[in-house]
C-alpha cells in the first residue's frame, strides 16, 4: 500500500504544478501519468502574465526567460497563400509595452515548461510515468486507487486523503464520476505538425518581420506557420471544419507537402517529428468536486486555444487548490475551505471560455475578409484580434467570490478581457508595486506566496504585530510587513497606498495564492480584531488564543 496525502492523476503542466506546490507545503503526493516522458509536441506556447508571476515565485524565472522568444515576436501576421506572401496586416507586439507586473507574458513551449516543472516537483513529490490509474474508490477517510506500471504490469494500491484529476480533456476520472461537461463540444478541429528545419530562407522571412504565427490564407485553406524557438523547431497548424468524425492525420508525404506549401518553399528540407489532430471545444465541468476528488486543468474545462488561456487557467487551478489542501491537511483550516475551490475557479473558466470563443470568431472574420480581398474589413478585424494578444483583464483582473473572501463593501472592476485596473478589492489579485527591501528592488508579488501576508501602511504596525502573534501561537503560516517611508519596506514609486486603497494605518490580508482576503482602510484605535475575524472566516476555525494585546507601532 502506497500512503500519500494526495494522489494526482496526470503529470502534465497542471499535475506537476500541483505536486510541486504541495511538496513545498509539506504535503506528500504521488503524480502518475501514462506517458513515458514530457510531450513530444510543443503544444501550448504562451505563458500569460499571471502564470509568469507564479513561475517567478517558484524560482523558474531564469529558465522560462532563457527559453522564451523575444517580445517583438508576440504578434500574429496574416498573409496571402503562404508565410512569404503578401501581408494583409498584423496584431500589435509586446515589444516596449509596459505590463503592470514584474513579469511579462512569455512565449515558451509547453514541453520546456513541463521539463522544468517535473524537475522541481521531483524535489518533494513522487512522479511515476508510464503508470495509469485503473480504478479508484472514495472511503470515509480518503481515496483508494489501483495503479498499474505499464512497463512491468505490476499493480499496486494507493491510499490518500484526496485525489486530484489532472488527466486531460478525456479525463477518465471525470467520466467515472459521471460529472457532465457543459458548453459547445465541437467548434472544429486543428491539425498540428511539429517539424525541424534550419533552412536560412525560413529565417530570412522570419527575421525580416518576426511573428509568433503566420496565417497563410487562401480560398480553400488556412495554415499557420509558427516558430517554436529561434534555432530549428517549428509548428504548422491547419484549421479543419467541425465534422462528425475526427479527421484522420495526414500521411508523412501529405504533411511534408502541407508544410512546404505553407512556408512557400516547395523544396524545403525538413525533418517531420510528429503529427496531432485535436478537437476544439468550449466546455466547463458542471462540478469541480465530488467528495474527496477534485478536477483541475483540462479535466475541468476545455478552452479553445485562441487566446492561449487553456494551460494558464489549469496551472492557476492548481495554484488555487494547493494552498487549501495544504492548510486542511496540516490541520490549519476546516475542510469546508475546499468548497471555495469550485466557487472561485469555475467562474474563471467560464469567462475564459467565452473570451476564447470570441477570439475564434474574430479569427473567422479576418479569414473571410482576406478571402474577399476586403482591405478595410481585414484591418478592422485585426484590430479586434488585438484582444487575443493584449488581454490583461483576462490574465490579471479576475476576482474571486466565496466564503474565503471577506468583502469590505467595495465592488471589483467590471470584467474586461483587455483592460486591467490594479485594485486590492477583496477577491482580486493583490496588485504589483515596486518595493525596496534592504536595498533590494523587489515586487510586492515576491512577498505573496506560500503563506498569508499582511501588508500594512507605514503606521499599520499593529496589524503586522497581530499577524506575527498568530503565527507564533498557532503555527498558521502568516507574516506581515509595513510599507512606506521609514517602514520595514520602502514604497519605491510612492503608489502603494493608492493602489491598495488604504490609509497609512490600514492593511490588507493576502491569501497564499496572492488574492486579497480582507482589507481595512484604517485601524480603529489599536483594535486588530477585524483581522483575526477575517482569518477565522477564511480558515473556518478559531485563532482567538492568538489575539494580541493592543500594540501601537508608528
Describe the fold and architecture:
- With 554 residues, the chain is α+β, with helices and mostly antiparallel strands.
- Among the domains are: 217 residues, FAD/NAD(P)-binding domain, CATH 3.50.50.60; 113 residues, 3-Layer(aba) Sandwich (Glutaredoxin), CATH 3.40.30.
- Helix content is 31%, strand content 26%.
- The chain has 14 helices and 25 strands.
- Strands 1, 2, 7, 8, 9, 10, 16 and 17 form an eight-stranded mixed β-sheet that branches. The chain has an eight-stranded mixed β-sheet with strand order 5-4-12-13-14-11-15-18, with helices on both faces.
- Helix 1 runs parallel beside helix 4, helix 1 runs parallel beside helix 8 and helix 9 packs antiparallel against helix 10.
- It starts with a strand and ends in a 15-residue tail after the last helix.
Short descriptors:
554 residues; 14 helices; disordered C terminus; 31% helix; eight-stranded mixed sheet; single chain; FAD/NAD(P)-binding domain; alpha+beta; Glutaredoxin; globular
Topology of this protein?
Layout: E1 2-9, H1 13-24, E2 29-33, E3 46-47, H2 49-57, H3 61-66, E4 76-80, E5 87-90, E6 106-107, H4 110-121, E7 126-129, E8 131-138, E9 143-149, E10 155-165, H5 172-177, E11 181-196, H6 200-208, E12 213-217, E13 222-227, E14 233-240, H7 252-263, E15 271-285, E16 289-290, E17 293-295, E18 301-302, H8 310-329, H9 339-371, H10 375-389, H11 392-396, E19 434-437, E20 440-443, E21 452-457, H12 461-474, E22 478-483, E23 490-491, H13 496-500, E24 507-510, E25 516-520, H14 529-539
Parallel strand pairs: 1-2, 1-10, 2-7, 4-12, 10-17, 21-22
Antiparallel strand pairs: 3-6, 4-5, 8-9, 9-10, 11-14, 11-15, 12-13, 13-14, 15-18, 16-17, 19-20, 19-23, 21-24, 24-25
Helix pairs in contact: 1-4, 1-8, 8-9, 9-10
Amino acid at each position: 500500500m502506497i500512503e500519500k496525502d494526495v494522489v494526482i492523476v496526470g503529470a502534465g503542466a497542471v499535475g506537476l504544478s500541483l505536486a510541486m506546490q504541495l511538496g513545498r507545503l509539506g504535503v506528500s503526493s504521488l503524480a502518475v501519468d501514462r506517458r513515458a516522458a514530457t510531450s513530444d509536441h510543443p503544444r501550448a506556447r504562451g505563458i500569460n502574465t499571471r502564470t509568469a508571476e507564479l513561475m517567478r515565485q517558484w524560482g523558474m524565472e531564469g529558465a522560462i526567460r532563457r527559453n522564451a522568444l523575444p517580445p517583438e515576436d508576440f504578434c500574429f501576421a496574416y498573409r496571402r497563400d503562404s508565410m512569404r506572401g503578401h501581408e494583409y496586416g498584423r496584431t500589435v507586439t509586446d515589444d516596449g509595452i509596459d505590463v503592470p507586473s514584474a513579469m511579462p507574458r512569455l512565449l515558451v513551449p509547453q514541453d520546456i515548461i513541463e521539463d522544468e516543472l517535473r524537475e522541481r516537483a521531483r524535489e518533494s513529490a513522487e512522479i511515476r510515468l508510464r503508470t495509469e490509474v485503473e480504478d479508484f474508490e472514495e472511503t470515509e477517510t480518503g481515496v483508494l486507487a489501483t495503479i498499474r506500471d505499464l512497463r512491468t504490469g505490476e499493480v499496486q494500491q494507493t491510499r490518500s486523503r484526496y485525489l486530484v484529476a489532472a488527466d486531460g480533456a478525456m479525463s477518465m476520472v471525470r467520466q467515472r464520476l459521471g460529472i457532465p461537461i457543459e458548453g459547445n463540444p465541437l467548434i472544429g478541429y486543428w491539425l498540428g505538425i511539429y517539424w525541424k528545419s534550419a533552412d536560412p530562407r525560413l529565417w530570412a522571412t522570419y527575421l525580416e518581420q518576426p511573428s509568433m504565427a503566420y496565417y497563410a490564407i487562401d480560398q480553400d485553406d488556412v495554415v499557420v506557420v509558427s516558430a517554436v524557438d529561434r534555432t530549428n523547431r517549428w509548428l504548422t497548424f491547419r484549421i479543419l471544419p467541425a465534422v462528425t468524425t475526427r479527421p484522420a492525420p495526414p500521411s508523412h508525404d501529405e504533411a511534408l507537402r502541407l508544410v512546404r506549401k505553407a512556408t512557400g518553399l516547395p523544396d524545403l528540407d525538413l525533418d517531420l517529428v510528429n503529427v496531432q489532430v485535436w478537437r476544439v471545444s468550449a466546455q466547463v465541468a458542471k462540478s469541480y468536486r465530488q467528495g474527496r476528488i477534485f478536477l483541475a486543468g483540462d479535466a475541468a474545462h476545455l478552452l479553445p486555444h485562441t487566446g492561449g488561456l487553456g494551460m494558464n487557467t489549469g496551472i492557476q487551478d492548481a495554484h488555487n487548490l494547493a494552498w487549501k489542501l495544504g492548510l486542511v491537511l496540516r490541520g490549519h483550516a476546516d475542510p469546508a475551505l475546499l468548497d471555495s475551490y469550485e466557487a472561485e475557479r469555475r467562474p474563471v473558466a467560464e469567462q475564459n471560455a467565452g473570451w476564447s470563443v470570441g477570439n475564434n470568431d474574430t479569427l473567422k472574420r479576418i479569414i473571410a475578409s482576406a478571402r474577399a480581398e476586403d482591405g478595410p474589413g481585414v484591418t478592422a478585424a485585426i484590430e479586434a484580434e488585438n484582444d487575443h494578444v493584449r488581454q490583461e483583464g483576462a490574465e490579471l483582473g479576475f476576482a474571486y467570490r466565496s466564503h474565503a473572501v471577506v468583502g469590505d463593501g467595495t465592488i471589483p472592476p467590471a470584467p474586461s478581457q483587455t483592460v486591467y485596473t490594479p485594485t486590492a478589492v477583496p477577491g482580486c489579485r493583490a496588485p504589483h508595486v515596486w518595493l525596496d527591501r534592504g536595498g533590494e528592488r523587489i515586487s510586492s508579488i515576491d512577498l505573496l506566496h506560500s503563506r498569508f501576508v499582511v501588508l500594512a501602511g507605514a503606521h499599520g504596525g499593529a496589524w503586522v504585530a497581530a499577524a506575527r502573534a498568530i503565527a507564533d501561537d498557532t503555527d498558521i503560516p502568516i507574516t506581515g510587513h509595513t510599507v512606506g517611508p521609514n517602514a520595514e519596506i520602502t514604497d519605491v514609486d510612492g503608489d502603494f497606498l493608492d493602489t491598495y486603497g488604504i490609509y497609512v494605518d490600514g492593511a490588507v490580508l493576502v491569501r497564499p495564492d496572492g488574492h486579497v482576503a480582507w482589507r481595512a482602510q484604517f485601524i480603529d484605535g489599536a483594535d486588530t480584531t477585524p483581522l483575526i475575524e477575517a482569518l477565522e472566516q477564511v480558515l473556518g476555525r478559531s485563532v482567538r488564543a492568538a489575539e494580541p494585546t493592543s500594540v501601537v507601532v508608528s
